[in-house]
């Protein structure tokens, strides 16, 4: 009788889970695979919306819940969170005994998961390696996770090349496209009226979706940079704003406090959410006139909606960017000029037929099949690949 392969999928953040859903369904639907779900990080924090409940409401069984987030946004609190994660993951992996663990992205929760898996001798399948984000600590974490991983699933052939540059076996690197883009296709997007009822907020003549995170390799810049954006928005009273709050990062609370202050002063034209969930978030993206911020979703997902997107500062520097992305300095002058360009009918028309550079067919299915067919016992020891 063929052995059932146990695939443990790790999720520590709201956005990450949404991207992984198509893969979770692929694993569950395969009779030769058993899904194990390890939930941690912000999912279990009241401050970030207790989003593990969304996972349960979607019908997935959570096998392990690992508390790790320290309620602060300082460098020392993040370091302590990593330590707590390592302790919790070690016990969880000992209980679950998976044949493979799936990690997506580059956050500190994921780095701790990679370390625990490596020491536990569980092969890692890493999704979204090879990318560059010069402004964030995520950049170094991502490359570190790559070096601990056995299989690599990238969003673009350029990213695959970078993974190979890090000494990874080309036969273990697969350009499968973005799970983000595949997730969009599976979502039933809401029409304007239904969307407004759901979020209890009326859209205006001009609308923007804003997601801004701290630039974690810069010191004490969050307040200045985000204040520059808010000052521009204050000058444009005709623009209605939908804010999504930050992740658990250094200086994240600074941004969240500024959002609360802005919304309290501009209740008729602004609203904020700790977590919108995929349907509301993608519906917002489909309805607004411009997306503003420095989130990876602005780079990877907005091209599918052909929506003008203002990318502020260095947090996403190094990523491949589609034609809808407008890069600008984190200053009032730079943001104001970019906002003007994003609303120009000529620019909007220029991107109406653009393609998303991260889109490929059957992304989740291809990831599942590669993990399923990989004989990890025969290839437990990695060899550095010299080009």
What does this entry look like structurally?
The model has no long low-confidence stretch (mean pLDDT 92). The protein folds into two domains: 5-177 and 360-379, Rossmann fold (3-Layer(aba) Sandwich); 190-350, Rossmann fold, CATH 3.40.50.2000. The radius of gyration is 21 Å and the shape is globular. 43% of the residues lie in helices and 16% in strands. Helix 3 (75-96) packs across helix 4. The protein has 16 helices and 13 strands.
Number of strands: 13
Q: Average pLDDT across residues?
A: 92
Q: Mind telling me the CATH superfamily name of the largest domain?
A: Glycogen Phosphorylase B
Radius of gyration: 21 Å
If classified by CATH, what would the architecture of the largest domain be? 3-Layer(aba) Sandwich
Helices and strands, in N-to-C order? EHEHEHEHEHEHEHHEHEHEHEHHEEHHH
Order the strands across the largest sheet as they lie in space. Answer: 3-2-1-4-5-6-7
CATH fold group of the largest domain: Rossmann fold
Largest sheet, described in full? 7 strands, parallel
The amount of helix comes to 40-55%
Q: Categorize the overall geometry.
A: globular
Features:
alpha/beta, Rossmann fold, 6-stranded parallel β-sheet, 16 helices, 13 strands, about 375 residues, 7-stranded parallel β-sheet
Fold blueprint:
Elements: E1 5-11, H1 14-28, E2 33-40, H2 52-57, E3 64-66, H3 75-96, E4 100-104, H4 108-119, E5 124-127, H5 138-148, E6 151-154, H6 157-165, E7 173-175, H7 179-186, H8 192-199, E8 206-211, H9 222-235, E9 239-244, H10 252-265, E10 270-273, H11 278-287, E11 290-293, H12 296-300, H13 302-305, E12 309-312, E13 325-328, H14 332-342, H15 345-350, H16 363-373
Parallel strand pairs: 1-2, 1-4, 2-3, 4-5, 5-6, 6-7, 8-9, 8-11, 9-10, 11-12, 12-13
């Amino acid at each position: 009788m063929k052995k059932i392969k146990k695939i443990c999928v790790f999720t520590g953040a709201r956005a990450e889970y949404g991207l992984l859903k198509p893969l979770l369904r692929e694993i569950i639907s395969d009779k030769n695979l058993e899904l194990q779900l390890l939930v941690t990080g912000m999912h279990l924090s009241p401050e970030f919306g207790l989003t593990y409940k969304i996972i349960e409401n979607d019908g997935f069984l959570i096998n392990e819940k690992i508390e790790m987030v320290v309620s602060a946004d300082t460098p020392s609190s993040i370091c302590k969170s990593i330590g707590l994660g390592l302790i919790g993951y070690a016990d969880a992996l000992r209980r679950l005994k998976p044949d493979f663990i799936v990690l997506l992205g580059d956050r500190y929760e994921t780095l701790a998961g990679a370390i625990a898996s490596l020491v536990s001798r569980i092969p890692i399948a890493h999704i979204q390696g090879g990318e560059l984000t010069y402004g964030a600590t995520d950049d170094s974490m991502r490359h570190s996770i790559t070096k601990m991983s056995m299989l690599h699933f990238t969003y673009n052939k350029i990213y695959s090349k970078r993974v190979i540059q890090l000494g990874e076996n080309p036969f273990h690197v697969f350009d499968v496209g973005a799970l983000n883009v595949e997730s969009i296709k599976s979502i039933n997007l809401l029409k304007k009226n239904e969307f407004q009822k759901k979020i209890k907020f009326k859209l205006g003549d001009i609308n923007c979706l804003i997601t801004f995170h701290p630039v974690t390799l810069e010191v004490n810049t969050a307040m200045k940079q985000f204040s520059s954006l808010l000052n521009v928005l204050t000058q444009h009273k005709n623009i209605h704003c939908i804010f999504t709050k930050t992740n658990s990062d250094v200086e994240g609370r600074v941004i969240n406090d500024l959002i609360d202050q802005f919304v309290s002063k501009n209740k008729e034209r602004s609203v904020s959410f700790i977590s919108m969930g995929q349907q509301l978030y993608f519906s917002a993206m489909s309805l607004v006139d411009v997306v503003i911020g420095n989130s990876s979703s602005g780079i990877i997902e907005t091209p599918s909606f052909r929506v003008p997107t203002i990318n502020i500062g260095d947090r996403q520097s190094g990523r491949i960017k589609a034609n809808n992305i407008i890069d600008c300095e984190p200053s009032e002058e730079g943001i104001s000029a970019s906002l003007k360009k994003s609303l120009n009918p000529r620019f909007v028309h220029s991107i109406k037929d653009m393609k998303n550079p991260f889109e490929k067919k059957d992304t989740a299915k291809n990831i599942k099949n590669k993990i399923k067919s990989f004989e990890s016992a025969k290839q437990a020891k990695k060899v550095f690949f010299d080009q």
